[in-house]
Amino acid sequence: MDLPRDIVHNILSRLPITSLIQFGCVCRGWHTLSQDSYLSRPKESNRCLVFACDELYFIEFPDDNGGGRVRKFHPPFCASMPKYKVVCSCDGLLCIADSSSKKSAYIYNPFTSNYKELPTPEPSQNGETIVGFGFHPIINEYKVVKMVYRTKNDGCRLSNGAASLGSFHCEIQVFGLGGNTWRSAGKVPYLLDLQSSESPLVDGRLHWVTAPFFGGRKFISFDLADEQFREVPKPDDCAAIGYHRYPLAVLRGCLAAAAYCSNGDSEIWVMKEYNVKESWMKEFNIRGYAPNLESPSLEQSYFRGPVRIICLLKNDEILVEYEGTTLASYDPKSRYFKNLSFQGMPNLFRTILHTGSFNWIDIPV
């Protein structure tokens, strides 16, 4: 007797993405069922961590703060792009850019091996590059954006904090994944901070911070629907944001900002209602951290630095990365860290929160 489709969906939706992939290999009928549009949608239960270090590794989400084995992805395009960086993850898709030439880019579903190579923007430009990727639900489209800052004066560098926007040419180019060409979306009216490579996506808008030392940092959004830059209000009591290495993140779907305090702590502010200044609330205070190998659950008193916020765990602890070498969970109540280590984990990495799915760019999420 055939089971009703809703019951089948309920059963299959409880399986992790790796089990669904194995399920789809049994026969053609099961393969078709595993790729049903209902199952293609990214789900919270399929969260995993991707470790990027010129190679890609992943582990199914370690909500139990331990156990598990890190496995490796094998991108089909890695021979043509041996060194790459993961720009970000969105709806089960990774945006991957060439870390050497900064010209090539791919959209890649690591669990299905589907990928799309993006053409090189014309004219090809060298310079300091910022890339973002996201989906806007209103227009139902994925877009990649690329900004290349080129100096007007060869002796001037964007990263040293001693230049102004007038010292650079910068145009934003947009690639809609439903098309085949890049197009210009105008000049970039802000000098963005290259040292902060995060581009969190909230409400169909990518977010960055401006470079420091020019009237203080600003929060800048780029709307993927109308392709306009806008300033996002900051919390009044958060002046120390300018000193945090990883100022922006997403927590529970909300834009979050980290401020680095003089005592080494990091204050985490969350905007509960998007674009409403009064909705900013200080939710967490995270102690400065340096890994202590002899007593990994305790904090060292000296040489502590800001951590990069990855996400919240189900037990209300915060998953953080420190200096690309250590993954840890932080308990806001006890104010203790716990180093997390998994078999097969690389020594140097950047952690990306990813939701595994069968999603592809021509399948609405």
Structure commentary:
By secondary structure, the protein is mainly β. The protein has a domain at 245-341. 7% of the residues lie in helices and 37% in strands. The chain is built from 4 helices and 24 strands. It has a 4-stranded antiparallel beta sheet with strand order 3-2-1-24, with no helix packed on it. A 4-stranded antiparallel beta sheet has the order 4-5-6-7, with no helix packed on it. A hairpin with a 6-residue loop joins strand 6 and strand 7. The chain is globular, with a radius of gyration of 21 Å. The chain starts with a helix and ends in a 10-residue tail after the last strand. The model is unreliable at 293-303 (pLDDT under 50).
Largest sheet: 4 strands, antiparallel
With strands numbered from the N-terminus, the spatial order across the biggest sheet is 3-2-1-24
How many DSSP E strands? 24
| Helix/sheet category | mainly beta
Helix-strand pattern: HHHHEEEEEEEEEEEEEEEEEEEEEEEE
Overall morphology: globular
Which regions contain 5 or more consecutive residues with pLDDT less than 50?
A: 293-303
Number of helices: 4
Helix percent band: under 10%
Straight-line distance between termini: 31 Å
Q: Indicate the proportion of strand residues.
A: 35-45%
Look at the structure and give the mean pLDDT: 80
Protein name: F-box domain-containing protein
Organism: Escallonia rubra
Domain F-box: 1-43
